[in-house]
TrEMBL record:
PROSITE patterns: LRR, PROTEIN_KINASE_ATP. It comes from the Eukaryota. GO terms for molecular function: ATP binding; kinase activity. It comes from Chrysochromulina tobinii. SMART domains: LRR_BAC, LRR_TYP. The lineage of its organism: Eukaryota, Haptista, Haptophyta, Prymnesiophyceae, Prymnesiales. ATP binds at residue 260. This is Serine threonine protein kinase. InterPro entries: Kinase-like_dom_sf, Leu-rich_rpt, Leu-rich_rpt_typical-subtyp, LRR_dom_sf, LRR_domain-containing, Protein_kinase_ATP_BS.
Length: 288
């Protein structure tokens, strides 16, 4: 292969609108009704990443199984409630966020190399009957309707990041004590009445989010906090951005300040109001 880009396949751009195929370079494709479009027209032997976000999918074509070297599949922001019985066994990453799933489809259990799985902001009521692949390292189940978790999750002994915020969990299965590689656990905004004793024994756990649970006492209010009107602020350069907020340099009555703008009421660490309350209990030399 030369140093330039390979020739583009002869896609009919008159019928393409918003999906993306990644072959050896990024090709933007879009189809207004992709769930009626067959994947058979694409050379599945070279596609390693397939981005089908925002395609109004109600059904993922069974021909997805043809993509024998696919490593990443993004199905976010569609209308899916099921998946085909057979998915590419080469998948490492699968994103299904913001769909209509009520349970994790059994096809996920047949992905022996899967490392990252997201069903964030779906309608999950249970994790499903089939055990998840033990190869998983990241599992994102934030913003769902989960009340309980199965004991089978304890089989995921390679797990490093487990996101469970914004559900209805009242307890955690004791089998999770086997996740000795766990580094990050997000449990904020659930119904937990206590933290299990085994949680303190996880040797690699360094990030734990628990705000918004019944056992967590609310942060005390600070009556001296000033009231700030939005039109009193002057916004400047962006200082940083995360998944839940943007921080900008600003001015308030001539004083330099940092202004944090939240993108939504809930984040992967729970309610933003809980973060604000916690921040207000901490003193800083620059506090006025």
């Amino acid at each position: 292969m030369g140093t330039g880009r390979p020739a583009r396949p002869p896609y009919n751009l008159n019928h393409l609108v918003a999906c993306m195929l990644v072959v050896t370079f990024v090709v933007w494709l879009v189809h207004p009704a992709f769930d009626r479009c067959s994947l058979d027209s694409y050379d599945a032997s070279t596609v390693t990443e397939l981005d089908l976000k925002n395609c109004k999918l109600t059904v993922l074509p069974a021909s997805i199984s043809r993509f024998g070297v696919l490593r990443k599949l993004d199905l976010g922001n569609n209308r899916l409630s099921t998946l085909p019985a057979v998915l590419p066994s080469t998948l490492l990453t699968l994103f299904c966020l913001n769909n209509n799933f009520e349970t994790i489809p059994p096809a996920i259990a047949e992905l022996p190399h899967l490392r990252m799985l997201s069903f964030k902001s779906c309608r999950l009521r249970d994790v499903g009957v089939a055990p998840l692949p033990p190869s998983l390292v990241w599992l994102i189940l934030t913003d769902n309707e989960l009340v309980t978790l199965p004991d089978s999750l304890g089989r995921l002994t390679r797990m490093r990041k487990l996101m469970l915020a914004n559900n209805h969990l009242a307890s955690l299965p004791s089998s999770l004590a086997a996740m000795r590689e766990l580094e990050l656990l997000r449990l904020a905004n659930n119904q937990l009445k206590e933290l299990p004793a085994w949680l303190y024994e996880l040797p690699r756990l360094t990030w734990l989010a628990i705000a918004g649970n019944p056992f967590v006492a609310p942060a005390p209010a600070r009556a001296e906090l000033p009231s700030v009107r939005f039109d009193e602020l002057t916004f400047g350069t962006k200082l940083g951005e995360g998944t839940s907020s943007v921080v900008r340099q600003g001015l308030w009555h001539g004083v330099q300040v940092a202004i944090k703008l939240y993108k939504a009421a809930l984040s992967s660490d729970g309610k933003n109001l809980d973060e604000v309350r916690a921040s207000c209990t901490v003193d800083h030399p620059n506090d006025r």
